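Tokens in:
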């Protein structure tokens, strides 16, 4: 009975020795698996509105995840908001220009 207990403990040790910590968190991305055993490859997909500048994946070497740091997903939504702000500012500048410079010209021609 003691031999059986040692085998079970030995199996647990082997299992624990070939595991990585929980998978790394990547901002605005969803992993394709949560498996953290040696040889596991986790690939991430950016959620809607975000994109990655490089391929997002990491591999468990039995102890650590390689690479240990992933860049994450950047917000494409931010770019759209920034463009809308720039377009709005340009529109306001045009309206200001038209009212100050063209408005006085139009008033002179009409009178």
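Residues out:
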């Amino acid at each position: 009975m003691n031999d059986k207990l040692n085998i079970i403990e030995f199996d647990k040790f082997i299992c624990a020795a070939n595991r990585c910590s929980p998978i790394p968190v990547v901002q605005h991305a969803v992993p394709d698996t949560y498996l953290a055993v040696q040889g596991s490859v986790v690939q991430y997909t950016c959620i809607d509105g975000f994109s990655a500048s490089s391929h997002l994946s990491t591999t468990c070497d039995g102890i650590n995840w390689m690479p240990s740091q992933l860049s994450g997903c950047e917000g494409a939504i931010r770019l759209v908001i920034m463009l809308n702000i720039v377009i709005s500012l340009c529109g306001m500048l045009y309206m200001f220009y038209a009212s100050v410079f063209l408005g006085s010209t139009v008033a002179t021609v009409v009178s």
